[in-house]
């Protein structure tokens, strides 16, 4: 019975999803339209700006806008046409993010870690990579599918063994799904965004080798961290190794951008 319920649930989930291909060629399944996620992203961004202090104008805001503009100019035309918007949040944590719909936020604490425009481009390029690769859509689609399947399994177990067993199946299954499905999937997204972001920065005329320096600065600033298998992000040393190996392959792209006059002067 359990296997039949699982098969039916997965069939319904797959039927509701569309197949897309990420910028790196990876097959993706998404259940929501870009327009839906863009609307959610814009709403979330407005709520964050309403609740948190932001810088209004000034050098740091102009700095972020300059970097974002240079990176977005290397996206396909339909992605460039999004209503891109930036905000600098007054927050000492070294963090940045991008939301569907072209919304980019940078914490003031990031400027202590990203020590030049190339390093800031590495951070923002990575975050834009999440948007460009539809990672939010992919993530929420997968989480919705997992929650739906676990709910059906719990109902099936409850009908046969009682409510206590149903709760155990749902909670235990959620833990296993989180560790065995959702978190590894998120690491795949993070690694993919590293690749997209590093390529974008090279195309925009930022030095792709500076992505390595940025993450070395992040390690120094953050100190210890939890094991990779319990994290949504790749291990920092593994990430740095991949960025370092990729940087020489992007030097030709970087030099071509400079030769074409793409020489950002953001700060």
TrEMBL record:
<dbReference type="GO" id="GO:0046872">
    <property type="term" value="F:metal ion binding"/>
</dbReference>
<keyword id="KW-0645">Protease</keyword>
<keyword id="KW-0482">Metalloprotease</keyword>
<feature type="domain" description="Peptidase M48">
    <location>
        <begin position="60"/>
        <end position="246"/>
    </location>
</feature>
<dbReference type="InterPro" id="IPR051156">
    <property type="entry name" value="Mito/Outer_Membr_Metalloprot"/>
</dbReference>
<feature type="signal peptide">
    <location>
        <begin position="1"/>
        <end position="18"/>
    </location>
</feature>
<keyword id="KW-0732">Signal</keyword>
<dbReference type="InterPro" id="IPR001915">
    <property type="entry name" value="Peptidase_M48"/>
</dbReference>
<comment type="similarity">
    <text>Belongs to the peptidase M48 family.</text>
</comment>
<dbReference type="GO" id="GO:0016020">
    <property type="term" value="C:membrane"/>
</dbReference>
<keyword id="KW-0862">Zinc</keyword>
<protein>
    <submittedName>
        <fullName>Peptidase M48</fullName>
    </submittedName>
</protein>
<keyword id="KW-0378">Hydrolase</keyword>
<keyword id="KW-0479">Metal-binding</keyword>
<dbReference type="GO" id="GO:0004222">
    <property type="term" value="F:metalloendopeptidase activity"/>
</dbReference>
<dbReference type="GO" id="GO:0051603">
    <property type="term" value="P:proteolysis involved in protein catabolic process"/>
</dbReference>
<dbReference type="Pfam" id="PF01435">
    <property type="entry name" value="Peptidase_M48"/>
</dbReference>
């Amino acid at each position: 019975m359990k296997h039949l319920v699982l098969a039916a649930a997965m069939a319904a989930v797959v039927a509701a999803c569309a197949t897309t291909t990420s910028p790196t060629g990876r097959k993706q399944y998404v259940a929501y339209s870009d327009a839906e996620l863009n609307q959610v992203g814009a709403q979330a961004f407005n709520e964050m700006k309403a609740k948190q202090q932001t810088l209004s104008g000034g050098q740091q805001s102009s700095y972020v806008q300059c970097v974002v503009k240079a990176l977005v100019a290397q996206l396909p035309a339909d992605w460039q046409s999004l209503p891109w918007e930036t905000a600098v949040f007054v927050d000492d944590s070294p963090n940045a993010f991008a939301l569907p719909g072209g919304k980019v936020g940078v914490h003031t604490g990031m400027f202590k870690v990203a020590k030049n425009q190339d390093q800031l481009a590495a951070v923002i390029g990575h975050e834009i990579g999440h948007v460009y690769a539809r990672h939010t859509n992919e993530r929420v689609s997968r989480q919705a599918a997992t929650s739906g399947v676990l709910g059906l399994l719990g109902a099936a177990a409850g009908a046969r063994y009682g409510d206590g067993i149903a709760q155990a199946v749902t909670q235990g299954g959620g833990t296993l799904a989180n560790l065995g499905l959702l978190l590894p999937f998120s690491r795949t997204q993070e690694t993919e965004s590293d690749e997209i972001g590093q390529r974008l920065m090279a195309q925009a005329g930022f030095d792709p080798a500076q992505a390595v320096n940025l993450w070395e600065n992040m390690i120094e600033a953050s100190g210890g961290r939890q094991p990779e298998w319990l994290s949504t992000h790749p291990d920092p040393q593994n990430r740095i190794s991949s960025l370092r190996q990729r940087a020489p392959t992007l030097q030709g792209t970087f030099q071509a951008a400079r030769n074409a006059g793409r020489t950002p002067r953001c700060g």
